[in-house]
Amino acid sequence: MTDLSIDLGKIQLKNPVMTASGTFGYGVEYADFFPLDQLGAVVVKGIRMEPSHGNPTPRVAEVSSGMLNAIGLQGPGVEKFLHGEEYMPFLRRSGATVIVNIWGKTVEEYREVAAALDADREGIAALEINISCPNVKEGGVAFGTDINLASQVISAVRGATSLPIITKLSPNVTSIADFARAAEACGSDMVSLINTITGMAIDVRTRRPKIANVTGGLSGPAIKPVAVRMVYQVYKAVKIPIIGMGGIMTGEDAVEFMLAGASAVAVGTAIFIDPMAPIKVIAGIREYMDEFGIKQVSELIGAVKV
Amino acid sequence: MTDLSIDLGKIQLKNPVMTASGTFGYGVEYADFFPLDQLGAVVVKGIRMEPSHGNPTPRVAEVSSGMLNAIGLQGPGVEKFLHGEEYMPFLRRSGATVIVNIWGKTVEEYREVAAALDADREGIAALEINISCPNVKEGGVAFGTDINLASQVISAVRGATSLPIITKLSPNVTSIADFARAAEACGSDMVSLINTITGMAIDVRTRRPKIANVTGGLSGPAIKPVAVRMVYQVYKAVKIPIIGMGGIMTGEDAVEFMLAGASAVAVGTAIFIDPMAPIKVIAGIREYMDEFGIKQVSELIGAVKV
Amino acid sequence: MPQHGEIISNEILKDSYRKVVFYVPDIAAKTQPGQFVHVKIANLRDRILRRPFSICNVTPDGMLTVVYKVVGSGTEILAELPPGTVCDLMGPLGNPFTIGDDDELPVIVAGGYGSAATYLLAQRSPAKGILLLGARSSDDLILTEEFKSAGFEVRIATNDGSVGHHGLVTELVADVMRENPKRKMRFYGCGPFGMLMALGKMLTRGGMDGELSLDHLMCCGVGACFACVVKVKDESNADGWRYARTCKEGPVFQAHKVYYPEEN
Amino acid sequence: MPQHGEIISNEILKDSYRKVVFYVPDIAAKTQPGQFVHVKIANLRDRILRRPFSICNVTPDGMLTVVYKVVGSGTEILAELPPGTVCDLMGPLGNPFTIGDDDELPVIVAGGYGSAATYLLAQRSPAKGILLLGARSSDDLILTEEFKSAGFEVRIATNDGSVGHHGLVTELVADVMRENPKRKMRFYGCGPFGMLMALGKMLTRGGMDGELSLDHLMCCGVGACFACVVKVKDESNADGWRYARTCKEGPVFQAHKVYYPEEN
Ligand SMILES: Cc1cc2nc3c(=O)[nH]c(=O)nc-3n(C[C@H](O)[C@H](O)[C@H](O)COP(=O)(O)OP(=O)(O)OC[C@H]3O[C@@H](n4cnc5c(N)ncnc54)[C@H](O)[C@@H]3O)c2cc1C
Ligand SMILES: Cc1cc2nc3c(=O)[nH]c(=O)nc-3n(C[C@H](O)[C@H](O)[C@H](O)COP(=O)(O)OP(=O)(O)OC[C@H]3O[C@@H](n4cnc5c(N)ncnc54)[C@H](O)[C@@H]3O)c2cc1C
Ligand SMILES: Cc1cc2nc3c(=O)[nH]c(=O)nc-3n(C[C@H](O)[C@H](O)[C@H](O)COP(=O)(O)O)c2cc1C
Ligand SMILES: Cc1cc2nc3c(=O)[nH]c(=O)nc-3n(C[C@H](O)[C@H](O)[C@H](O)COP(=O)(O)O)c2cc1C
Ligand code: FES
Ligand code: FES
Fold first, then answer.
1. Of the ranges A66-70, B183-187, C133-137, D222-226, which one carries the lowest mean pLDDT score?
2. Contact residues on chain D for A269, CB-CB shorter than 8 A
3. Nearest residue to A170 via CA among A134, A220, A216
């Protein structure tokens, strides 16, 4: 029997496949496609204290083997998220393992969101700290590219909750391994990577940026080689589990991330192309394991032969 | 009449389209395809003092909308480059505007190569300092991701030659604008960007990296949004001209880089797919100018409407 | 679940407009007027996202028609696909138009591919009404004969005056109102954003309402990504508006719920 | 200049081997045995690079045949392309085999698609010789009948013993040498890297020479990118070897010029 369950230290998943924050809404949008509890975990879109409008439109643009987005973290705010019928209450009923992606405009706001979720933690398996959104002026990537600010945010969240915390790292840095080490040192239980790479596209006819925010985050297959490299670098730098993502479309892509050092993976942009992508990725990992006679999926972690 | 000539300060080009270093060999390999003097400039593969074997194979791998390479700067060394029939002597006869890409394992070696080329400068329009090759252990990206080392290299080259110098920047940094500012401060006449982004791919069947060097540099359309963003950031940071590159396949791609702030562009990976790509890019820029009634190509520089 | 949709025919309708028929019974059976399908075009090369298209027509035997204009890489590739090619369709997605009662006069105001997006509405409306169709020039007028066959009166406005009224289609709306002072009317709008904003303001200022199909660049098509938003009124929000997802909360919105630009 | 090459036919040869015929007269006219074409496969989606294939045969009327094995994304897509599809071909590229004199016995040692890459050589050799063909099993044996029609004797070795000699094809080479003690022989090798290394060492240690077609993962195909290198002897270099580009300096190399792994 192939065993896909995975132990991430403080949390156990039935399989290593999650949805990437921001690409799966709050789960409810895809509940008609498959039962959410088939996933390793559902990672919901970034939540802060207040409701947020997000950025002006256009917010997305298609580019070669990927897309740019600058949604700007539109969201309902933590209160509505916890109590609005289509958010956390729905997720609790779905039986899914839920990871809540959080952000704030200040270190203090990160702390507050974490505390608010901690206080109402039923059904929340972990918090993912987003210090890497390239599309908001305050918060986001400003924290993710400055190692001192990043450490402050992680320590503040650590102080506010006993829930497992995952720090989501930005690829827009010279050495992502340094940020992973800082996360580990500040008590992060896991790291997830990569968030999107800052990019830009210009419509040559109108001469305007294709994204109203001027720059946006690049995701999809285009970034996979960069993401795999970063997972490999981080795996050599820290002992805490890694959740790998960036352009995963198939089970073999997921295996590639695990061989590089990821203990679990997240599927993002692929969901827009095929809502069934996460389920197909799980099936693809299973097929790969069957073909190569691998019994426990954790055997793949970091097993690249260099 | 559409005028494609461009003034890069210390050098004037008949059009803004160059070949990207390492993707056009030493020019001779493509001389059967079109006359080299049709190009704005030919940028040759990286040259150091000594001949170099380069890296073990496999050296390239195909990925979504791009490729990874870790050639490792195989080359004949500066003496052979200057005097070997198929190198500089051939290029001099071709009438092409030649830019020589240089590198070294130490700051001193960069200085020496620059001095050697300066001493035999006939037919050399400029030197491009490669401090951004991700595929060599010493030299290369170690210099390109440390602003002090980068400054030392540029200053050393500046001291060794009165030829115009172009600093080729690495995208593998948190703030490329900082490196551009440092290059300007150290007397670089231009900057070129981007070199490849470090990436990795693993063959899930053999579990081995697809590139013998483990990591390689990502190029091609996949990196275009990142490159355009970086050109835009650098344009806002420095006054010296920018040579933009990264995934340019068509005339419209080239226009996109110019709108973002590039004064000239280089075509790289596209040449492997279509050796005529640089010529088609020139034609494409001309068509675009005709369609939009642009008389002088320099009108496009930085003309994005934000 | 995404469905396989086999292309049955894929032909030129007029100039750069094409008409493609998919065999996709599960979607066809559920479709209501104003809904759309989200299509993964076969052979899309390095452009990977789906493309949304309004459903123009469906038949009981499982055929689903889309009328599309060739505007970029995706529609260019779609236009080349021969019958027999299988695409992958999600749908029907989005909220439909409300079909009026038989004593209401349906007035459809359309531009661009708007006539395609409202054809099924015309077909299924119990009362036959009027199509006000705007276009840049006569080249952009599509499906006028089909609307007439469905019992609709067709009035045209073109920017260049090549056919019908020389001017904006919204100018025809006033005529219709004037001609039918006593009649209960139901307005529907589908077309370019600017036209819909003008129509929506005109209706709401005149104390009337209507349904506008507001689409926007889409990505997921099901409400998950927040790419496709437009501003709608929201009193509970301090700013008086919020961004609503056109794919999930729309594409059909009540005109009086839309937040109009000048109010910014 | 890259040339348009229209696919005339594209059929299964045997198992996963396919045979595609392009109409590309400019390249066909110039082709010499051992050269290759660098093909931009139509509809390659997000895989953008060209694929190199040895030229199996050419005809005076402009046809160029490639025999290829379906191994990955590119060859899978190529296998689906119907006649009429136009690909873009660069070629003929690389250095050809030397055709021997009529008093020399040509001995071709081939594995994998090696028989395809040497078929034109067999055809154009003035003396008819021997093909030693190695394969994993009988499924991988291609073009044996064609070689026989070209007047060649065909001897087979399979790893599983399903046909011919049970063992390595290089073991057949010794037999040929033994059988023809006086005859001037010309050896050619084309196949998997390991086989060619074994053959090259065998020949050079026996004081003989031969021509080996050493191909390697390619990118530009014309000597510009240094992707495709193999080690060749180079006394002028302190290490005794250098990396040579198989696309430009090869793919055909003299066996005694190749640097063999053990010598590392
Ligand atoms: C709900 C909805 C219904 C639609 N119904 C129809 C229809 O019935 N017939 C029809 O011809 N078109 C319709 N469209 C527009 C259609 O989706 C786009 O024309 C198509 O996606 C363009 O794809 P492309 O690859 O050819 O162009 P691209 O190369 O992607 O872009 C070309 C141009 O089209 C614009 N565009 C791209 N995607 C969209 C999009 N999703 N929405 C709006 N504009 C876009 C781009 O901004 C660009 O200006 C609809 C759009 C939506 C959101
Ligand atoms: C000079 C030369 C001549 C060749 N002649 C023939 C021929 O006549 N018939 C034939 O079937 N094949 C030939 N090949 C190999 C052929 O180029 C590859 O099989 C093909 O490129 C694989 O493309 P793909 O997209 O299907 O596979 P990919 O998905 O790219 O890769 C599948 C497998 O093929 C290997 N591969 C990919 N590209 C190459 C390459 N350029 N060279 C060698 N291996 C590669 C990969 O490492 C991988 O293991 C030749 C290669 C060279 C360099
Ligand atoms: C439309 C969109 C919205 C996103 N929103 C968030 C977010 O709210 N929080 C976050 O941490 N990451 C967000 N991301 C980043 C993804 O979670 C993921 O890190 C990235 O897209 C790379 O994975 P992919 O290539 O599989 O999409 C978003 C990505 C996309 C495309
Ligand atoms: C095979 C290959 C070899 C390269 N060699 C060099 C080099 O020697 N020196 C250098 O500065 N850049 C080198 N580069 C980087 C290119 O010049 C260019 O910066 C990069 O490929 C991005 O452009 P592109 O996407 O158009 O290829 C190389 C790139 C490739 C693909
Ligand atoms: S397209 Fe994703 S929310 Fe509408
Ligand atoms: S493939 Fe580029 S040098 Fe041979």
1. C133-137
2. none
3. A134
Between CA D132 and CA D153 the distance in angstroms is 8
| Separation in Å, CA of C225 to nearest CA in chain B | 20
Q: Which residue has the tokens 């109409």?
A: D23
**Mean pLDDT for chain C overall:** 92
Interchain pair D40, B274: CB under 8 A: yes
Band the pLDDT of D237: cuts 50, 70, 90: confident
Query: Number of H helices and number of E strands within chain C?
Result: 6, 16
CA distance A156 to chain B (A): 24
- Which is catalytic among the residues A4, A133, A183, A234? A133
**Statement: residue D180 has pLDDT above 90:** no
**Separation of alpha carbons A227 and A230, rounded Å:** 5
List all residues of chain D from 35 to 54 with a beta carbon under 8 Å from chain A: 46
Which of chain B's residues have a Cβ under 8 Å away from the Cβ of D222?
A: 25, 29-30, 275
pLDDT at C228: 96
Q: How far is the CA of D56 from the centre of ligand 2 (A)?
A: 15
Ligand 1 atom, smallest distance to A210 CA? 47
pLDDT, tens digit (0-9, with 9 covering 90-100), for C197-244: 999 999 998 888 999 999 888 999 999 999 999 999 998 888 899 999
Q: Please, are residues C253 and C212 in contact by the beta-carbon 8 Å criterion?
A: yes
* Contacts (Cβ under 8 Å, ≥6 apart) of A265: A16, A17, A18, A243, A244, A245, A248, A254, A257, A258, A281
Q: What ranges do the domains of chain A cover?
A: 6-56+73-200+219-300
Ligand 6, CB cutoff 6 Å, lining residues: D 218-221, 223-228, 245, 247-248
Chain D residues lying within 8 Å of C43, measured CB to CB: 43, 45
Q: In whole angstroms, what is the distance from residue D84 CA to residue B290 CA?
A: 34
Ligand 2 binding pocket mutation candidate from D18, D75, D196, D214 (most atoms within 8 A of CB): D75
E-strand stretches of B123-212: 124-130, 165-168, 190-193, 197-200, 202-203, 208-209
Instruction: Looking at the complex, report in whole angstroms how far the Cα of residue A221 sits from the nearest Cα belonging to chain C.
Output: 9
- State which H helix or E strand residue C9 sits in: strand C3-14
D219·B272 Cβ contact <8 A:
yes
**Geometric angle at alpha carbon C107, from C101 and C112, rounded to 5°:** 130
pTM of the model: 0.95
- Judged by DSSP in three states, B36 sits in helix
Yes or no: say if D10 and D81 are a contact pair by the CB < 8 Å rule.
Answer: yes
- The span from the CA of B106 to the CA of B111, in Å, is 9
Tokens 């299509």 sit at which residue? C39
C137 or A114, greater pLDDT: A114
Kindly state the DSSP code that residue C96 receives in the 8-state scheme: P
Return the ligand 2 atom nearest residue B210 CA.
47
How many other C-beta atoms can be found within 10 angstroms of the C-beta atom of residue D102?
9
CA distance B218 to B247: 10
B135-171: pLDDT as tens digits: 666 656 678 889 999 999 999 999 999 999 999 999 9
pLDDT confidence band for D179 (50 / 70 / 90): confident
Q: What is the ipTM of this complex?
A: 0.95
Looking at chain D, how many residues does it have? Answer: 264
Q: Which of A159-168, C6-15, C160-169 has the lowest mean pLDDT?
A: C160-169
CATH of domain B6-56+73-200+219-300: 3.20.20.70
Render pLDDT for D90-132 as a digit per residue (tens, 0 to 9). Answer: 999 999 999 999 999 999 999 989 999 999 999 999 999 999 9
- Write the single-letter amino acid at B2: T
DSSP line for B193-227: E--PEEEE-EETTTTEESSTTSEEEEESGGGHHHH
